[in-house]
Amino acid sequence: MHLTSITHRKELFELATRWFADCPHRNDGRFLTQVVTFENLITAPVVRDLLTGIKQAIHPGPVALRRLTSKDELREAIVRCTPEPTAREEELFDLYRHFPEDFFPGTPSDVILGLREDGSILGMARIKRLRRIAEKCSRRVADRLAGAINERARALAQERARAFGIPLSQLLSSREEMTQDYHQAERLVSRTFRDGVLVFKPEDLRIDDGIGIKFVGTPEELAAMERAILVHPSVVAVEREEHRGRYNDINLLVDLRLPPVGELVDLARDWDWTRHAGKGFSADELRDQFPDFVESGERTFRAEVILTTHGDLVESEFGSCIHEARILEQRAGLGYSGRIASNASFLIEYMLMLAMSPTLEVGELPVKMWGHYLPDVYSLAVWRLFGITLGRDQIDHLVPWGTGALATALHL
Q1: How far apart are CA 349 and CA 369, in angstroms?
Q2: Cβ contact 379:300 at 8 Å
Q3: Which residue has the higher pLDDT, 68 or 1?
Q4: CA 70 to CA 109: how far, in whole Å?
Q5: What is the number of other CB atoms lying within 10 angstroms of the CB of residue 205?
Q6: pLDDT for 100-151, tens place per residue?
Q7: Which of 38, 159, 275, 396 is deepest in the core (most CB within 10 A)?
Q8: Residues 6+ apart with CB under 8 A from 409
């Protein structure tokens, strides 16, 4: 994946593409653990400084911060922070009160919510969860695979047309023939990973919203916020996109410059490294590794900043463009969801679970891009990362019949 919100994005992209070709390195787990542990510490001071600059442009007063861990808490906070809802907002809130199950209850989300002195929402910040990063990257892979498989299937049909001495436009193929072409194309594309032929470019797997910031205000306040971003000393580039339709906002991809390495190391000097216990490294090892990791990374990173009104914030959480519904639409709209896409999705998620586990050294990858696997293989591989191995007794509890009952039924 090419995660632009981190400073070691080139190394992470190179690792991901190696894994797709089944070429892991023994120390990949160490690097992934460092990425998950260190990157937020590197970028957080710059993000905080940007947030302060935007806030000061429209609200010099104090801001109360609240940590939220689910979308339920966020939606409840929006309702509480809207003392005089419009007719549309009241309609949506009423639906939420009476039919909460329609609003994706239980969705996890790590959000810092900022409230003005009057209790209204000023903004929020979040780091995208690892599972969402894995899902988004696997969707990029699926999009790329769809084009490659369709192109190969078309070439196979072209060969059949050539054998009949007719142009492809005149070839009449049965459903069975088209299915055979597609499966053959899928096999051929899957083997290009083994042979190192199908190569992803960073743009194919780019994810820009690993760090997300959303500010809420009037149109005049949003204009002032945007000006504050453009003149902020840490900002080196801004890409702007304006959304109009079911949901309206200004979307800014902001490239930020890091302070000198020594300054970042000093800021982390008193960090409690024991908070990261259980990931394979001791607190002392992490403390000693941090300076070199900072120095070896890029000097810029990217954050997504969304500027929106309160009405559009309500629409995005309760109305016609709920974020979770958009995720489901994206999943349903995948151009390709076959076995290669499933294998890619697992490898990406396995990569991120490895970073969270006590396992540091990588052996043989449990999945090859060109292989056929049942979902059970994925689960067992992840459990092993955390030192969990299942014996016959445990499997008995997981299998509906149990292996013992199955053996008895088969007279074994």
Answers
A1: 14
A2: no
A3: 68
A4: 4
A5: 24
A6: 999 999 998 889 999 999 999 999 998 877 777 878 888 888 888 888 888 8
A7: 38
A8: 401
Determine how many CB atoms are found less than 10 A away from the CB of residue 293.
20
**Shortest CA distance to 214 belongs to which of 322, 346, 313, 299?**
313
On the question of pLDDT at 195 being above 50, the answer is yes
Pairwise pLDDT comparison (405 vs 283), residue with the higher score: 283
Closest by Cα among 84, 116, 70, 100 to 318: 100
Alpha-carbon distance of 324 to 340, in angstroms, equals 25
Contact at 8 Å (CB) between 142 and 337?
A: yes
Whether the pTM exceeds 0.70: the reply is yes
Tokens encoding 343? 């294998």
**Token pair of 308 as six digits:** 């929106």
Give the tens place of pLDDT for each residue, 296-348. Answer: 999 999 999 999 999 999 999 999 788 788 777 776 666 677 888 888 889 98
Orientation of helix 28-58 relative to helix 219-230, angle to 10°: 120
Q: Tokens 């919510």 belong to which residue?
A: 113
Domain boundaries, the chain: 2-13+33-126+205-332, 132-203, 339-409
